[in-house]
Amino acid sequence: MTATKKRERLTIDISTDEHRKIKAYAAIRGQTLREFILGSIKAQMERDEEEADLRLLTTKPTECLRELWDNDRDGAYDGL
Fold it and tell me: N or C: fewer beta carbons within 10 Å in the chain?
């Protein structure tokens, strides 16, 4: 017996011109409208997550990173 995955529906209102442009862009890329939109959303979420990770690294560095950054050899760069 195969279990079916429950799916949710997402509806947004866009203009006819926006719909036409997005659909054409997806078609040029060889994707369905659904594939293109989901892929775009996932890509944006990944970029946001990477930015958050980088921000965390630079604002709350781990002990290992502190040791790498705070050394006499690299001290010359501190004034830049």
Answer: N
Please provide residue 7's backbone torsions phi and psi, each rounded to the nearest 5 degrees: -120, 145
pLDDT digits over 1-32, tens only? 567 889 899 999 999 999 999 999 999 999 99
End-to-end CA distance of the chain, in Å?
Answer: 65
For 19-66, the DSSP string reads: HHHHHHHHHHTT--HHHHHHHHHHHHHHHHHHHHHHHHHHHS--HHHH
- Rounded to whole angstroms, the Cα distance separating 31 from 27 reads 5
Using left for φ > 0, alpha for ψ between -120 and 50, and beta otherwise, residue 7 falls in beta
Residue holding tokens 């442009």? 21
